[in-house]
Sequence to fold (537 residues):
Amino acid sequence: MADDFLLPDIEDPTSAPFWAGTGRGELTVQACGSCGRWRMPPRPMCPHCRSLEVEWVPTSGRATVWSFVIAHPPLLPAYAEFAPYNVITVMLDDDPRIRFVGNLVSGPDGSIGEIDATTIVIGEPVEVVFTRIDDVTLPRWVRRS
Amino acid sequence: MASPQAAKSIRGSTAIVGIGQTAFGKGLVDTELSLACQAVSLALDDAGIAPAEIDGLASFTLEHDREVDLARNVGLGDITWFSQVGYGGGAACGVVGQAAMAVATGQANVVVAWRARKRADPASRPWAQVGGRLAGNHQWTRPFGLLRPVDEIAMLTRRYMHEFGATRDHLANVALAFRKHANANPNAAMHDKILTRDQYLAARWISEPLCLFDNCLETDGALAVVITSAERARDLATTPAYIHAFAQGIPPQHQTMTNYFNEDPLRGPAWACASRLWRNAEVTPADVKVAQLYDAFSPLIPLSLEGYGFCERGEGGPFTDNGNLEWPDGGLPTNTAGGGMSEAYVHGFNLVIEGVRQIRGTSTSQVDGADVSLVTSGEGVPTSALLLTVDA
Fold:
C-alpha cells in the first residue's frame, strides 16, 4: 500500500517550507536571501555567499528528465507491489542546476508503475503534479507536450 | 637528509607488512568480533609481530565492534593511537592511509587496520530499515522508491551512458573480467562460477540499467593488515608493500550516493582524491601495473578509470574493451582477486589485501613486474586511495 511508503519528516526545520509548499500545491525552492541563488536540497548556509538568510520562491514546475531508473525486486514490500516502477530525476526549466527526484505518472493519482518504462527518455519535458499520502504531499511528474 | 618537499609527505616511510583474512561466505557462524579477531591474529602472524607490539588501531565507523573489544581479545598492550574513517565503502584506503600517517608522525609504531562484516546481520542493510520519518538527504529520494544503493548508482549510470555513450557491453566487460580473476582465486566466493556474456545479458534486472551481475556480492568475512615503519619493515620476513602515496577526496557540492544536485554529478570523489594522490606520488597512472578499483557496482569502474586518470573523461567504457582489465594480457589488470563483484564484498578491504599480494608477487593472477599497485575505495561517496610500491 502506498500508505506504507517511506515519507519525509515534514517538520524538519530545514525542509519544512518545501513540504508546506507542496501541501499548498506549489513547487518551491530555497533561495539565498542575500545573493538570490537557488539551492536544492535546502540547507542552512548559502555556499556562494555564506548568508544564513533564506527565502522560498515559486518555480514554474516545468522540467525535463535528467535520468531515470526502473526498480525491480528485491524491494521494500510497500514499493515491491508496484514494481517494476520508475524513479526519475528532473532538472527545472527555471534553473537546470535545480533537480528533483520523483516519479513519472499519468496524473496525481497515478501509480508509480503505470508508465511503460520503454517509453521514458532523457530530455523529455514534464511538469509537476502533487500526490497526497497521509499528511505528506509528494511532487510527481506528468508528461507535457 | 630528506628534502623539505619529501618531509611533507609520508611517501615510502611506512609499509604494509602483514595481511590476514578469514574465509568468505554467506552465513558464517562466528560473530563479527570473532571474525575480526581471527583476521587480526592471522595478519600479526603473517607479519611475525607479537600482539604486545601493536600500539595503534584503525577501522571503519561502520564497524560494530570497537577498538577495546578487539584489544582485549587479541591481547594488545597500550594503544596510543586509534581512529575511524566514515562513508562505508569509501573508507578502506583511508583507514590504512591514516594508520600510515600515525606511524609516520610517531603517534604509533605498529598499527592494525581491519574490517569485519556479517551481511546476514539486518543492521548491515540500512536501506531496509523502516520506521519513522525520513530526514536529511533521504527525504528527497526514498519516498519515490529510490531505496537501495543500486538504485542510487543506477540513476548516475543512466546519465553516464546518455552523456558519454557507455553501453551494457562495457559494464559486462567489467563483470566478466572480475569473474575470470575470481575463477583463478580459490578463496573467492565465485571461484567455481563461470560467467558468460550471454548470462550477463540475460540476467534479471535489479535497477535498470543495472542487472544482477552489475552488483557486488553479499559476504561475511573479515580482513586485517599490519602497518609499520619502512625501517621496521626491513627487519621482518614478509615483503613490504610500501605506502607510496595516500589520499582522500570529497569534491565540491558532493552529496553521498545521491549526487544528482550539483553542476557535474559525474565528476565524482575520485577526481578530488586523485589530484592529491598523484601530487604526492613520484609515479603517474602510466606507471601503475595493476589496479584494485572499488566495485560495489560495475559502472564505478569506468568512473574511477576516468577519475584516476587512466583515460580521458567519457572514455572509461571503451577503456574496458578488448579484455583491457583482464589478467594476463590486458593493459591494466584490475581486481585481480575478483573484487567486490566476484571475490567478496567487505567494503573494499579485500582490495587492499590484493593490492599487497600483487606487490609481494603472490596473487593468483599475478602481474609480472607489478612494482606499482593502485587501490581505490568507493566512488560515489567520500573516498580514498593508496599507491603501493615494491621500493620505498
User: Anything to note?
Assistant: The first helix of chain B runs from residue 4 to 7. The radius of gyration of chain B is 20 Å. The interface with chain A takes residues 128, 130, 133-148, 151, 154-156, 158-159, 162, 204-209, 253, 255, 258, 260-263 of chain B (CB under 8 Å). Chain B is about 30% helix and 15% strand.
